[in-house]
Amino acid sequence: MMLLAILTDFVALFFPRACLACQAALVAGEQHLCTTCRAELPYTNYHLLPAAQNPLSRRFWGKLPVVHTLSYLRFLQHGRVQHLLHQLKYQGQQDVGKALGQLYGAELATAGFSPEFDLIVPVPLHRRKLARRGYNQADAFAAGLATALPCPWSATALRRTEHTTSQTRKSRTERWQNVATVFEAAHPEEITGRHILLVDDVLTTGATLEACGAALLAAGARQISIATIATAES
Predict the structure, then answer these.
(1) Full-model pTM
(2) CB–CB of 160/125 below 8 Å?
(3) pLDDT above 80 for 4
């Protein structure tokens, strides 16, 4: 064990691990995020509120029956969270999603959410976008959550049937029209009768999550809850 620790320190001297949020070198005992970022990230802590008092729930009132609407961090322009999500989505850093999923999953488990969910389902990418990017960022978050809660997850339970244009810079109505009918259950037997935790990287207007949730309910899901890495608060 001592030899392994010495070897680890030697490797870290020449190839220091960096904090996923601020890029500062991690020191012994730190994993993925430095102590400063762990303390200063803008956590929502909405999972500690009664569901009726959670402001994120209002985004789905009258649109989709959601049991829990959960989001780990607040998205702030040019902040640590934006940097984390940029790495995850565009720089191939799937470890960002897995690490944040594990951290948030541990908090949800401590708060008593583990028995709530039967299956975690990430929002899918269309096969063309998946082939171009090489991975689905929501899968990484789902995998991290699944490890910590613990709860099974499926990357194939839901599929996107059409390739749509980017949701960026669209109004809520335009976003909904863009994705309203492009999701379907690929394996309804995985979904029927289950409480599904639907997950994605960012909650903005909620149009994509709403469309996915509707497809899951149509396939026989008993209940739907939502969890994202971050929320762009309106």
Answers:
(1) 0.84
(2) yes
(3) no
User: Which comes out higher in pLDDT, residue 92 or 194?
Assistant: 194
* Mean pLDDT calculated for residue range 156-161: 89
- Residues contacting 195, CB < 8 A, separation 6+: 67, 116, 117, 118, 119, 221, 222, 223, 224, 225
200 pLDDT more than 50: yes
Which range has the worst mean pLDDT, 53-57, 115-119, 197-201? 53-57
User: 193: phi > 0 → left, psi -120 to 50 → alpha, else beta; which?
Assistant: left
